[in-house]
Every structure is written in structure tokens, then in C-alpha cells.
Amino acid sequence: MRRALVLIHIFAAAHAWHIACRRTHTPRMDTSEDLLHTLHSARPLAFSVSLLSSIRDVRKCEWDALAVQDESPFAEWDWLYSLESSGCACAETGWTPYHIVVRQDETHRMVAVLPMYLKSHSMGEFTADAPWADAAQQRGIRYYPKLLCAIPFTPVQGARVLLSHELPAGVRAQLLLLVAKYLRTLAQQNGISSVHLNFCTDEEVAAFTQAGFLHQQSVQYRWMNEDDSSEAEAEYSVGTSGKRPYADFNAFLAGFRSKRRTQILRERRIVAESGVKMRVLTGEQVRPELMSLIFHIYKRTVDRNVWGRQYLNEQFFTMLGQRFQHRMHVVLAMRSGEIVAATCNILKDGVLYGRYWGSLQDSRFLHFEACYYTPLENVVKQGWKRFEPGAGTPQSRLWRGFKAVNTHSVHYFCDNELQNTISARLQAHRQRLQGKIEPPVGRSLHGRQTVLRSSSVLAHGKRGPVLPRWDEQS
After folding, report:
1. How big is the chain by its Cα radius of gyration, in Å?
2. How confident is the model at residue 20 (pLDDT cuts 50, 70, 90)?
3. CA 97, 65, 68, 195 torsion: positive or negative?
4. According to the model, what pLDDT value does residue 459 have?
5. Which residues, listed in sequence order, are joined to residue 16 by a DSSP beta bridge?
6. Which of 188, 206, 234, 385 is spaced 20 to 30 A from 342 at the CA atom?
7. How far is CA 107 from CA 48, 58, 59, 282, in A?
8. How many CB atoms lie within 10 A of CB 277?
9. How far apart are CA 369 and CA 387, in angstroms?
10. Alpha-carbon span 175 to 467, nearest angstrom
């Protein structure tokens, strides 16, 4: 663990600010006079910044006090610990942990954390930065290593800078800006090409673009438990806010055109007539030995897929069955009492996240039943908010009632020429997306929609991390 003490002195009475930074192995944090207007104490504030070489270097209760406030479950300590301890996200696989912890010195209270990694490749990120690596190479710039603030192998939107809920809104915005400037300086002073926050929040986009980061938009497909029919909206509009959730799965099907509704019913019938019965397990029903079996089913499917890449191992799956049991939502496909397919989903605060799928047999429409229909049916039954199935084919999801939504990432490149080149590319990409992600109206929501395809991620660079020198700065 490397630690830097960064003292930010703010004197409200004098309406001036001053930063005193001790000699450190990491760059100091910058600040802004605007922060004065959000603070009500004339006493100086001091923050310390720590770079952690392992999630084990911070107490679980402290990290989760910030992480549990985010809607996404994947920034929680147990998830990151399982990835790291199982050997899935570690230096040997090109994911060297450099998590950031920000504390207020006077109270030693943690006010912000960032899961961050020094990456020696771009695999497992689900963003298409291969053209950026090519552009860097053409300019003689070493693209790797790079700094990545993200959840390994998890393309789910959520907060990347986890902030204390006790911070006022104005302080949150300023602290995000300070962190953005700190990351930018960290890369500049240590010969790192770039900094990336993948699948971040709108709040983070606003702060980081103010600090000079570039904004990238992508597309994902989510299913919302919102009955868009005019009858449901009229019935639900009196004295309520938002849209009414579906009464049952049939109410969801009623929003489709006849041909598409008939096709979904036919697909489900074919699965049932093949002798497959679906079973949902949650919480304590999901034992580590079951997760071990699910891993082998998952691995078989990955190995058979020409584009498949196995990022996760059996130990990670069994650790989820031990440490993340309270959030597990597993769908099993059973034939003659034997498991023939499974999906591993994660649940938090009324949002179901589809993660891993595998099958031992080739069975028509079984993938759609296990990965879409049974989870959707359970979301409706439980009254949950939405279902995010993860990466997958856009067309198959739009036809089954999923909606296209924008996701966001921000990026900073230390080389000015490279920054300008990629800025122009991202601006052109946003213009192509503009107007194509629109909410459908009424019963047309399950009709024809524009399909936006994302390019695949290509790996670059040699295997294994190239550690930068954390040279002493004054």
C-alpha cells in the first residue's frame, strides 16, 4: 500500500484557499475556490489519499459503507475480493489493483473510494478501444499500461467514485472534480498513457469532463418493469408517480404485436414440451457446490463458442456461493431431475443483473427461456424495477421487449495530439447515436426499433503488467 497525505486548507473567513502537500509518492490533489461556498466551517480540511495494492488493505465495513449506496452490487467489497483472491483480477492476468481511498484527516473517516487497476491489455472491459491503441502506436506512444476505474469483466453502469452519502451535493461535485484532476496528474507524472472510467454515472461524466476527460456513449439493452399501455397509465396516474409495473407476464405480452407475442409463446412451449422444467434458487439455496457445477456448465459453453473467452475460474464461482449468497438469483433448467442449463444472476435493490450462462445440451430456445423469459417472469412476480441481461445480441433483445439506453464512459489521454484525435472520433460517434435512442410510444414499444451494434474489443500488448515507477514528487 502506498499512501499520500494531501492537505487541503480552506479558510472561509478569508475567502481564499491554499494547498499544502507533503513529499509523497503520488501527485497532490488540486482544488478549487468554488469549494469554499459549499463548506460551513472556517477550520481547514485535510484529506489523505491512499493507493492500495489489494482490496484486503481496506476494511470491508468501511468500503461497503460507501459501496452499498450505489444501485449496482458489483463495487461491493465481497465481489472485488472474490475477483482478486480467485486470481481472476490480479497482476498475473493484467489487472494490477491500485484502488484509491480518500479519507478526511481530522476524523480519519473514509469519504471516497475508487476500484482502479493498472491494465496491460484491454480484455474483459467491454469497450472498444482497439482503434485508440492503434492511433497511439502510430504516434509512437506506448498505450499500455493504462489506468482503468471499472469493475473487471462487468459491463454494468454504476458509480466508479464511491462517495459518502453524508457529503452535501456541492461537496460531492467538487470532490469528484478533485479526484478527476488527481487521476489525470497521476498518469502524467508516472508515464501512464491514459485514464479510463468505464460505465460510469451522469454525475461522474459532468465532473470528469469539466476536468478535461472525453465523454464516450455506448448502448445497452434493459428491460423495464413499466406497463406502457394507455389503460395501465390512465389507471396508475391518479395520485401516483412513475409508471405502473406489469400485473403479470401476460400483461407484458399484451404489449406486443400479435406475431411477436405468438412467437414468444411458441418458444416457451417448445422448451416445456422438450421436458425441461425451470427452477429459480435464491439466497441460501445457492450453495458453493452448486456454483461449482454451474461453473463447469458455463466453461463448457465458453469453450464451444468461437468468440468465447474465459475470464473467470471455478474458485470465483464458489466464492460467490459463499460471500455473495444473499444477492444470488440462479435459474436452473432441469430435465429428468438433472441440471442441463443454468444462468447466474445478481439482485440488488429491485434490479436483476444477468451475468453468466451455460448449457450442457443443445435445446431450441432454451437460452431465451433461461436468460430472458424466466428471469423476466420473476421480476414481474416480485415487483422488481428492471432486468439488465448484460452483453449480448441487440436484435434478440429488442424483439423481446428490451429497450436501448445510453451508457457512459470518460477517458483522458496524456498526449495532447492523441487526446484531440480521439475527441473528434467520440464526437462523431455521439452524433451518429443522437436521436436513435428514443423511448417508444404506447403499444409500439415492442415493434420495430433501430438496432445499434457495438464493435468487439481486441486485445493489445503483451501478457502481464508493466508497473510504472511511483516517483517521489514534492
Report:
1. 24
2. very low
3. negative
4. 30
5. 11
6. 385
7. 11, 16, 16, 39
8. 12
9. 14
10. 27
Give CA separation, 52 vs 3, 110, 199, in Å.
Answer: 8, 14, 22
Query: Which contiguous run of DSSP H or E holds residue 336?
Result: none
- The amino acid present at 105, given as its one-letter code, is D
Continuous H helices in 228-331: 230-236, 249-253, 258-273, 288-304, 314-323
CA distances from 154 to 89, 108, 127, 279, 396 (A): 12, 31, 11, 25, 21
DSSP string, 129-148: -HHHHHHHHHTT----SEEE
**CB neighbour class for 387 (10 Å; exposed up to 12, middle 13-18, buried from 19):** buried
Instruction: Dig out the grid coordinates for 337 from the structure.
Output: 431431475
DSSP sequence for 191-222? T--EEEEEEE-HHHHHHHHHTTPEEEEEEEEE
DSSP 332: E
314-323 and 77-85 are packed helices; what angle lies between their axes, rounded to 10 degrees?
150
C-alpha cell at position 24: 509523497
Cell numbers given for 292 = 461449482
Which tens digits make up the pLDDT trace of 177-186? 999 999 999 9
Nearest CA among 309, 316, 274 for reference residue 294: 316
Q: Are 358 and 305 in contact, with CB atoms under 8 Å apart?
A: no
Mean pLDDT, the chain, rounded, equals: 83
What pTM does this model have? 0.83
User: Using CA atoms, how far apart are residues 342 and 393, in angstroms rounded to an integer?
Assistant: 19
**Residue pair 339/366 in contact by the 8 Å Cβ criterion:** no
Q: Are 80 and 60 in contact (CB under 8 A)?
A: no
pLDDT digits (tens, 9 = 90+) for 59-116: 999 999 999 989 999 999 999 999 999 999 999 999 999 999 999 888 889 999 999 9
Cell representation of residue 360: 450442457
| Grid cell of 283 as nine digits | 439466497
Cell of 303: 469453450
Which residues, listed in sequence order, are joined to residue 102 by a DSSP beta bridge? 49, 112
C-alpha cell at 459: 486485445
> Residue 125 corresponds to which amino acid?
E
CA distance 44 to 23: 19
